Amino acid sequence: MVERATYNRLTVGSTPLPATNIGVIMKQLTQKNLDEILSKMFEMVGAIYDPSVVKKERWYLKYRWTKMQEEQFRKWLVSYLKKNKFCLNTKIAEKEANYFLLWTGFPTSDFEKK
């Protein structure tokens, strides 16, 4: 039996993500899938993913990415979801990617005051 990732309990700080706000497909990810996705996300900002990092308070604020990096990751995630047959419809995959980025994406650095 494959253990499913508890994406709806992925902790942002000490607060679990609300299950009602997460896409249906994202709830079906295995821990292996989630680790692959987060590894790519961290790679996009030049960091190395370690599962213990996402258990820390406000872990998602440690790194920043540009809108271009975020968009490249979004495209990669849509492709990943389709390739791994979580969904075949591009529009649904895009919606799921947007949910993922909303709840676990890094802040963008494009809008910081200089």
Explain what this protein looks like in three dimensions.
With 114 residues, the protein is mainly alpha-helical. It has helices at residues 31-44, 67-83, 90-104; strands at residues 11-12, 15-16. The chain has one domain (7-104). It contains three helices and two strands. Strands 1-2 form a two-stranded antiparallel ribbon. Helix 2 (67-83) packs across helix 3 (90-104). The longest helix is centred in the middle third of the chain and has 17 residues, at 67-83. The model is unreliable at 1-9 and 11-21 (pLDDT under 50).
Q: DSSP helix count?
A: 3
Structural class: mainly alpha
What does the oligomeric state look like here? single chain
Give the ordered list of helices and strands.
EEHHH
Strand content: under 5%
Output the radius of gyration: 14 Å
The total of beta strands comes to 2
Instruction: Give the uncertain stretches in residue-range form.
Output: 1-9, 11-21
Rough outline: globular
Quick one: biggest sheet?
Answer: 2 strands, antiparallel
Distance between the termini: 51 Å
- Integer count of domains: 1
What's the short story on this structure?
This protein is mainly alpha-helical and 114 residues long. It contains 3 helices and 2 strands; from the N terminus they run E-E-H-H-H.
Topology:
Elements: E1 11-12, E2 15-16, H1 31-44, H2 67-83, H3 90-104
Helix pairs in contact: 1-2, 2-3
